[in-house]
């Protein structure tokens, strides 16, 4: 747009310059005039190449009553409805040409402000379950200082987010419904519990669950493997080697081996690793090629013994004194007098 206006302005001044110099050059020779016209034609060609639009498509200001593009920056009232980039170029051209005489008008401000909607991006509005204005933020003057001046928000209303919260709520409701109506029906499949001997199933696996769908979080993937040393059927040498290899994983107070794992994202993977590691430890303990008999046991886990402290009897706090309640004493005396009078009235 700037190139188009500059070209029209140049042609207007160039035509005046050409007429003045042709009249003054009538006394010159015909060859000099032809040379001058050829040079001017080159200048015209260069200027026309500068324009982005062909000059044949331009409409003169007198045709159809349309605004002359070369004079459009002088009439800000005609800018309304134009694209934002064109309005900005016209504003810069107006400032550049008018220089000190430039004075912004209301028409120019209105035209520039009308382009804000096309330049600003659209913001997605939040979906509220209930379109009720917040009484606290609108009618009460206790809004925090950092939140003052911000747009109105419905903080007391339930906001529908991406869908995770309603889905979690439906899942909890479904679990509650199953616990109330379906789990009691399992009573007809009740059987007596006959636990197997601990020597046949020595391992105890402990899982964790927070009843969420994220099975790979830090709580749900954590497992614990426990086994009592007496259930492994090991001789004293094998037990000694097992304790040496277990290190701080063996509790000498409870005589149990505990192994926890949370290195893998799923609980089943952690169980597989813990069971495999325990079997390797057990096989190595049963191999008595190296008994570790010369290595003493280190017992880092010890039972904390609490020594009773005998304080002197003089340190005992005296019993609190009962405050004198005059009202209770008066009531008790009045009841005693009435009881005595009643007993005298019924006694023979």
From TrEMBL:
This is 37S ribosomal protein S24, mitochondrial. Signal peptide: none annotated. It comes from Candida viswanathii. GO terms for cellular component: mitochondrial small ribosomal subunit. Keywords: Ribonucleoprotein, Ribosomal protein. GO terms for molecular function: structural constituent of ribosome. The gene is RSM24_1. GO terms for biological process: mitochondrial translation. Residues 193-316 form the Small ribosomal subunit protein mS35 mitochondrial conserved domain.
């Amino acid at each position: 747009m700037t190139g188009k206006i500059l070209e029209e302005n140049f042609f207007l001044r160039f035509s005046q310059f050409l007429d003045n110099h042709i009249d003054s050059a009538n006394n010159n020779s015909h060859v000099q005039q032809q040379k001058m016209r050829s040079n001017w034609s080159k200048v015209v060609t260069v200027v026309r190449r500068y324009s982005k639009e062909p000059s044949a498509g331009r409409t003169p200001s007198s045709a159809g009553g349309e605004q002359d593009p070369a004079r459009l920056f002088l009439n800000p009232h005609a800018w309304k409805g134009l694209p934002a980039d064109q309005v900005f170029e016209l504003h810069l051209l107006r400032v550049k040409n008018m220089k000190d005489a430039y004075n912004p008008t209301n028409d120019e401000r209105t035209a520039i402000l009308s382009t804000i909607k096309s330049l600003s991006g659209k913001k997605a509005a939040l979906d509220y379950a209930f379109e009720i204005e917040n009484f606290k933020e609108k009618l009460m003057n206790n809004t925090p200082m950092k939140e003052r001046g911000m747009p109105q928000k419905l903080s007391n209303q339930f906001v529908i987010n991406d869908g995770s919260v309603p889905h979690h709520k439906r899942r909890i409701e479904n679990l509650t419904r199953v616990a109330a109506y379906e789990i009691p029906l399992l009573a007809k499949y009740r059987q007596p519990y006959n636990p197997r001997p601990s020597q046949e199933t020595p391992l105890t696996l402990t899982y964790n669950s927070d009843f969420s769908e994220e099975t790979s979080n830090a709580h749900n993937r954590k497992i614990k493997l426990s086994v009592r040393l007496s259930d492994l059927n090991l001789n004293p040498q094998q037990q000694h080697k097992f304790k040496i290899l277990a290190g701080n994983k063996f509790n000498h107070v409870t005589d149990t081996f505990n192994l926890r794992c949370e290195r893998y994202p799923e609980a089943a993977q952690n169980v597989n690793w813990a069971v495999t590691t325990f079997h390797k430890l057990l096989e190595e303990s049963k191999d008595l090629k190296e008994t570790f008999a010369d290595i003493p046991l280190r017992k880092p886990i010890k039972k904390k013994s609490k020594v009773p402290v005998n304080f002197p009897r003089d340190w005992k706090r005296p019993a609190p004194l009962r405050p004198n309640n005059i009202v209770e004493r008066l009531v008790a005396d009045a009841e005693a007098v009435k009881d005595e009078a009643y007993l005298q009235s019924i006694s023979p």
